[in-house]
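Running log. JK asked me to keep both predictions on one page so they can be read side by side. First protein, sequence followed by its tokens:
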Amino acid sequence: MFLDRLDEHAARRPMAPALVRGDRTIGYGAFMTRVDACAAMLRGQGIGREDVVGLTIADEIDHLVACLALMRIGAAQITLGTQDPQPVRDRLAARVGVTRLLGAGSSVAVAGRAKAADEAPGQADHDRPAIYLPGSGTTGDVKLVSLSQSQIATQAAIAYADYRGERILQLAPVEYNNGKRLRLYCLYHGGACIFRDGSGVPLTQLCRDQGVTWFDLSAYLAHDLVRASAQHGGLPDFTAVRIGGSRVSTALRAEFRARVCQRLYISYGATEIGGMPGVCMAAPEELTPDAEVVGRPLDGMEVVIVDPEGRPVPPGTVGEIRMRAPGMVTGYVGDAEATRRFFRDGWFQPGDMMSLSADRMLTFHGRADDMIILNSINIFPGEIERALESHPLVAEAAAYPIASGVHGQIPVAAVQLRAGAALAERELLAYARERLGVRAPRKVTILAELPRNGQGKVLKRVLAEGRAGGG
């Protein structure tokens, strides 16, 4: 399955680049030899297929070598990130029953061996839990999913065929969910994983120097590239960019294409279904200035839009998206309540509000749990966000409700201005009222930066609780 594919690359194209950092290139042959040597070392330290190993390795190449070595052994693994406080690592380790800790060059036993948290008796190595990852979402406790080697291979085959033989730059560190998965998908297809080398070279120059053909990044890093373009210019013509993982406003899409890269793709997905673009991806010619389209469902992906009772809605109608595909996970590890809420009758329903046109184009409208109900009027946060982001001095907006004993909920918003911009909050209120009327926010707060989680998603819960400092 997954490792078999990498072994094929090593046998057929041993000199083809697998990992590139600065002036150092590791071919598939040398890479898999190193993986096998690491697996032998770990076996010698007593690690076996019944272990669950906590990985705490910040170096990205060393981390990937250890990750694949553990797959070779058949042991399950979870990243206990070096950037996380020790109590966070301890809680994650306890949830999946970590038995060994693996740092840079050493391992420590922490408990007796036990079956992985969701392992069934007699499973083959390629169908047993291989990697535990945090699921999608920005609220509540971290939800964990497990992926087997078979699932990783299936997801890669369905959603990431465009990685085949390409040179891929992914900015999220390998210790992060997206950073690890996307690099595994790249390796499955025989691509080259490009890493930053710590030299501080601007990303536009890195793409030129390393011949990056696919550049995956989040929306908040796209904002950084737009700001940096004044000094460093845009990306080379041979680089295509895919943005996903969170909402990508129409304003950001337009500015990014004008100043950074015309070859912009917008993706939508979730860890549970295969990451981004696990569900769909919009090509540059499909992007429109007046709607947040995210593309048509990929081959092998089933998508339906439903109403609150779970009934399919007509084309163009906004509802909740349901999706399913080969290789998807079917529940959360040790969280039956969350599994019942988000996995229904074989479908994954993440709570995103979407519409699906008659020609199968998906458009994002926000989160179901972000819906604002003002005096029985349903207001999509996206309506407010798009209106505020149409102001030339606004970089990004986030709309959310605050509770009211009289009105139910009151719409408010926080905005992040463009670099160097100055604007009064009352001006933004007036601007929004002109465009939205009764659906306009009753308060707008200007922040130096919108609060985000490690994946770049805006934390509206933090905004609603008043824990984000003003600008």
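And the second, directly underneath as requested:
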Amino acid sequence: MKTNFYSLFSQNLNFSLEENEKEIDNQEILKKIETLKKNLLNISTNWKNKEVYLDIKDRKLFIFMFLALQSLEAKIVLIPIEIKSEDYICFDKIFISDNKNIDNFIFINDDLTLKVGKNFLFSESINENDHLLYLYTSGSTGKPKLIPKTYQNLITELQELKKIFDIKENDTFYFTIPLYHIYGFLFGFLLPLYTNCKLIIDYNFTPETIADFVEKKQISYFISIPSYYKMLVNLNLIEKFRKCKMLVSSSAPLSYEISAEFFKKNIKITEVYGSTETGGIAFRISAIKNDWQLFSYVKIINNNCDYYENDENIKELIIDSPAIYGKEKYYNTGDIVKLSDANKFSLIGRNTRFVKISGKRVDLQYITEKIKEYFYQISCQKITDDIIYIGEIDEKVFVIYENEFPQSNSEMKNELKKHLPGYAVPRYFFSMKIPKNEMGKINKNKINEIVLKIQENKVENK
């Protein structure tokens, strides 16, 4: 019985990698894994149930190390590049990196040798739960959370994706996204491994080189994000993807206009809706139909939405799914949906102040609290919610404050960078009255008009 992805790899003999025109077949991958296992066992003979934090950016090294640690039954924690070190570095944990040569880390070299930092101590603590690995959320509350996943959580979604995408063993995969988030990890690595396919791991850094590469290699499944698809449209590169069986998009909404431009060339982009916590929830091709189709294993929990009492088909999207870890499987996504039938829905809006910026979920309320704390430290005056407003437009965060700002905009930005991910630091700062309607509620339309006018004039706070 397969219990981890090393066991799966050992049986899926057609799974292979390709880099720089060189194929690395299953047996060659196995040799690399055995080399790494030997090197790891020279450090300690017992890795079972040890939490190991992986900070490996090279795709090939990541895959080899992941499978080696799986074979040793370690519990792996994937570290995204945007996570601040203060949020994860703890000197009683085990860290392996290919980009941070720190005294208490293990450093992996390109030749698979391991350099042990002079202050490295092998942790004696063990984790005996059923978690296979941990993934960080993108930081929806400003501070990322660790989400556990079991083997069954992940296999459940992989089985569904194989069925939806109709993947065959001679197909090839190529991706542009990092492996340390759920989307890249699942679609860019585990899905080709599970389906016994070839995964091409070359790096291409511009839309033009990516498009040429996909065309040349006749990629079957291209995995990317909306911002890349937008660039491919703007640069007239859609034709390069004609031979793909499917393009996949996730992490942020893909506009109908972009989907439609590809569809005009008979190229379908399948969007997948989900999160680190929930795994995949639904999919669609918006150029064909706007509704989302639920994954077969997902159930929507019946509830009444307070915001739309007169329409019984509008619900908060609370789901039950075996892709969610834990005994209590119900999860409130924060989205409001309209059901078109038992298995389909359209997105109406959100019931929280979460927004997405560069594919990352950001909590505007958390940013508000951080700014209020920062202003209080400077002025010793408490800031009330009625004189400050944090918003987002075109993936840029802005601040409206009814008093004078305590420091220059550049000083505030530099200070906030210490407490917030770069993409969550406000771009614009306005000292003005918060626009409100006649009922005393914030006039978001008026606010957006003001910010858009600033953008059109290409004025940015410095």
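Observation for JK regarding the second prediction: The chain has a mean pLDDT of 88.
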